[in-house]
Amino acid sequence: MDYKILTTETIPAYLKSIDEMSKIFSSFKSLNIEEVGDGNLNFVFKVTNQDKPTETAVLKQAVPYLRCAGDSWPLSRERMNFEIMALEKHNELYPECVPDVYYANKNMSLIIMQNLNKHKIVRSEMNEGKIFPKLAEHVSTFLARTLFYTSDWYLNSFNKKEAVKKFINKELCDLTEKFIFTHPFYDADSNSYSPDLLPEDIAFIHDDKDLRVEVSRIRQRFMNNTDCLLHGDLHTGSIMANENETYIIDPEFAFYGPAGFDPGLFIGNMLLAYVAHSYRQKVLLNNDSSEYQVWILKTIKDTWNQFVDQYNALWKDHIKKSKDEFWNYPGGIDDHALLRQKEITRIFQDAIGIAGCVMIRRTLGIAKVSDIADIKDTKARAKLDRLALQIGRALILFHEHVHTIDEAVAIAKRFLPM
Ligand code: ADP
Ligand code: SR1
Ligand code: MG
Questions:
Q1: Residues enclosing ligand 2, CB less than 6 A?
Q2: Are 164 and 156 in contact (CB under 8 A)?
Q3: Which ligand 1 atom minimizes the distance to the CA of 36?
Q4: Which residues contact 314 (CB under 8 A, 6 or more apart)?
Q5: Domain 120-415 architecture
Q6: Whose CA is nearest to atom 4 of ligand 2?
Q7: Which of 9, 31, 234, 355 is exposed most, by the fewest CB atoms within 10 A?
Q8: Domain spans of the chain?
Q9: How close is the Cα of 271 to the center of ligand 1, in Å?
Q10: Two domains, one topology: 11-113 and 120-415
Q11: Atom from ligand 1 closest to the CA of residue 233
């Protein structure tokens, strides 16, 4: 079928025409279709058989433009091909935390997948002060498996290079290069600033030459380092969860890049939530304790530390099982520990620099986060923006000087004690 943009009206007939859908829906007569897309790029529909509500699915389709900017900003639909390929890989590596894909069609730039109707977007829930007890465990496992099993430490050189080629995601990498690593650091047209943020707050970032140097170095590593397959957009809006389960969705930015990128996005977004809760907790949730901020920082630390443990264990196990002749000598596995430690430190420092970029891009750049941007009191919002800028800048400038997650978190606490 040639590409057509689907609508709530045309979806039932389209689904009926697909053989695979008869496994999901026993009838197509009374489907309820609801557009629920709140992301920046695509359209997402929930489809439910009103006669049998357990028969349900989510249809996600890419349109040939950037949804949040409208059709004046063309963007090829190729992004859906990357989402399809990445979901397939993620499902192979960690099926418990990735939605089942029922059907995918590259011509139509769409996927039909499991409706995560028992799960909610983590960012929105965190805004309300909800705790996710398994978040660190699941996110760290996702990171360890996806970053290790797609890297040269595991794959043979030919397969790795084939995979890098398959995941050359030029357009979405270009968005990241512009919107995370470039525009927020000067007065670009695409930026937007919250109403009460003062010119000197913006100049604090835009006039800092050392910051431009460091950001350019981080962007250069992003553009040239093909460590492993990344999710590419692993923020708290790409995670759906409940108390027991966690799902990682929306990997259309997937590409081969530096291993620190995904952990850095996660840490940066969690730190934005930490900043937001210095206001949300007291004013919106009417709670004077800092318990929630404590949970956020603990989750950051647990995620990183559990990632390191699992990444190390996968790597060590692989070296043992593969009997890699390079390390296969008495004491070889102990010597290998030094390589693991140096490599993890490199990933960590990259992640901290990227977390800093995330905090600045979500404050001055085109795409905000609801944690802070939804706060109506513009004076309070500007205060949070200022904190995000201060913490983000410090993380970028000092990323090569921190060695533990506790040190990185201490930087955030220095600007914003609980
Ligand atoms: P975009 O690519 O535009 O960012 P997302 O993949 O982030 O789109 O999806 C947008 C929204 O659609 C999510 O925030 C979530 O509310 C909803 N959504 C996406 N996938 C699912 C799913 N499998 N089950 C339930 N809701 C989903
Ligand atoms: C204009 S695209 C803005 C952002 O939305 C996506 O979720 C990515 O984070 C991208 O940078
Ligand atoms: Mg999204």
A1: 40, 66, 68, 175-176, 179, 233, 366-367
A2: no
A3: 12
A4: 144, 145, 148, 149, 154
A5: Alpha-Beta Complex (3.90)
A6: 367
A7: 9
A8: 11-113, 120-415
A9: 22
A10: no
A11: 4
How many whole angstroms separate alpha carbon 410 and alpha carbon 283?
25
**CA 377 vs CA 194, 200, 369, 390, 397: distances in Å:** 11, 20, 15, 20, 30
CATH 3.30.200.20 corresponds to the domain 11-113: yes
Decide if pLDDT at 284 tops 80.
no
pLDDT surpasses 90 at 283:
no
Does the pLDDT of residue 396 top 90, yes or no?
Answer: yes
Considering only CA atoms, which residue is closest to atom 2 of ligand 2?
A: 40
Q: What is the DSSP letter of 329?
A: S
Look up the pTM and report it: 0.98
pLDDT tens for 56-66 read 999 999 999 98
pLDDT tens, residue by residue, 117-148: 999 999 999 999 999 999 999 999 999 999 99
For 226, list phi and psi in degrees, rounded to 5: -110, 50
pLDDT tens track for 101-114 = 999 999 999 999 99
Q: For tokens 């850095």, what's the residue? A: 264
